[in-house]
Amino acid sequence: MLTATTVADEILELKRRRNAVLLAHHYQEPEIQELADVIGDSLELARKAREFSGEVIAFCGVWFMAETAKALNPKRIVVVPDPKATCSLVEGCPAGPVREFRRRNPDHVIVSYINTSIEVKAESDILCTSRNAVAVVNSIPVEKPVLFLPDANLGAWVRKQTGRRNMQIWQGSCVVHATYPARRVAEAKTEHPRAKIVAHPECPESVLAMADFVGSTTEIVEWCASSDAPEFIVMTESGVAYSLERNSPGKRFWFVANENCNCSDCPYMKMNTLEKLRDCLLNLEPRVEPAADLMARAMVPLERMLALK
Ligand code: 13P
Ligand code: SF4
Fold it and tell me: Per the confidence metrics, is the pTM higher than 0.85?
C-alpha cells in the first residue's frame, strides 16, 4: 500500500540530506516545533546555534535571531523560511539614531536587547536577552551611565529590578506584549481565580505588577512545570502553549487576547510555515548573509553577553 508523503516527511528527508539542524523559537507553529532539533528562547537558541556540527542551520524564528545564529556560525549556511519575518522592536530602532546617540554620549554603555538588527548590535557594547537582562545591567559598573534599547517595558522592568537610576531607555515596543491591557488580565483572573499569572517582561508595567512570575519564554515554561498550581494565565505569545502543555501535562493554560490582533500571535513569527521551511531546505534560500565586517563588530557585544553566566 502506498502512503502519502507529507510536508513534514519531506522536511525530515531534506534535513538529513542537507546535514541541517532545525532551531525553533517557542513562538513557532506547533507543527514546526514538532520537527525541531532544539526549541528555545532567544538566549538558548543563540547558545545552541554553535553547538551543532551540521552544515546548514534552518532557523525558524525571526530574522534578527537568524542573524545572530549566522554571526556565531559564519562558515555555516543559515536559511530562514521567510525573510520578511522581522520584529516591531527591530523596526523601531534604526542604527542611525543609535550611532548619533553614541556620538553625543560617548560615556554611555549601550546595552542592546537581542531583538535588534545586526547594524544596531554592531554599535552596542553588550547584548542581553529577556532572560539575562538584569544580570547584564548589573555587570556594568554602577557609575557608568547606560542606554538600554530598544524595549521600553523590558527596560523599565530591568530598572526596577536593578534599582539603576543612571539608565536611559529607548521607547520601542513589541506589538504582541505591549498591547495586553491590564483590564483583560484582571478579567481572566476573575474567571480563573486559582490560576497563577505568568508574564514576559515585554508586557506593560501594569500587567507585570499583577504577575506571580516574570521571565523569558523558557523560564515561564520551567516555572509553570515546577509550580503546584493547576492553571495559569499566560501573558506571552500563543506558540509557547506547545512547550507548556508538553512540560506540564494535565495543567490548564489561559491566553489573554491583546489589543493589536485580539489574539496573542506574533504576526512575524507566524509568517513561517511548514511549506516555506521545506522550500528553504530544498533551495538553500533565503540565506542570511550579513556583511563580514558587520558580523565581526556584532560579535564583540554578543561574546560579552555569552561570557556571562
Ligand atoms: P525570549 O527572549 O523569551 O525568547 O523572547 C524573545 C521575544 O521575541 C519575545 O517577544
Ligand atoms: Fe518581536 Fe514581539 Fe514578535 Fe517577539 S513577539 S518577535 S518582540 S514582535
Answer: yes
